[in-house]
Amino acid sequence: MVVLKTLLKDPEVVALIGEADRQxxxxxxxxxxxxxxxxxxxxxxxxxxxxxxxxxxxELAAVAGYLHDIGNVVNRDQxxxxxxxxxxxxxxxxxxxxxxxxxxxxxxxxxxEVGGNPVSNVSSxxxxxxxADVHKSRVRNPEFVKFDIHDRVNFAVRKSALNVNKAERTIxxxxxxxxxxxxxxxxxxxxxxxxxxxxxxxxxxxxxxELVINGTRLV
Length: 219
Fold this sequence. Notes:
The protein is α+β, with helices and mostly antiparallel strands.
């Protein structure tokens, strides 16, 4: 049975994630390498586990989370669709059955805020885990912070957490932002589409989406 640990040591997957991240670095994007892949996998699993979904469904969310950006190895444009196709080849090679493979493909293919939609529990968990990863550690060159709004907003985030409250059915992005580097308005300026798809993902899981910045609930 294919699990996240299977992927962590698979040479092809390691190569795809590494080369995809190298290409994005060349293009000036924030970090999309092993750190991001592992964190999204961990948090996608945690979302479904916290809401008492099945263990296997939570593991599929972790698998989707780890593979969701491998399509960047081909091109950033429509990377979510390319990622889904590449993931299919990897998962079938490793022995995953057709039904689970299709579920992972659907989640990966719908994770991007442009054109994506929560279509399953696995998909919703992946969306939330991916969009929650905003942090200064993703900025490759702090010298560019003054010029690029994406780097500036990420660099301003000192702490980020994805919190699930099963009793209250809330899913919260909790951020600590240094407003001397980037005002809160800049966060909304570039991440509004991500917040909208995150809210839809929380809705799919029958939860309420919340955004808390510096202790103040904004959404």
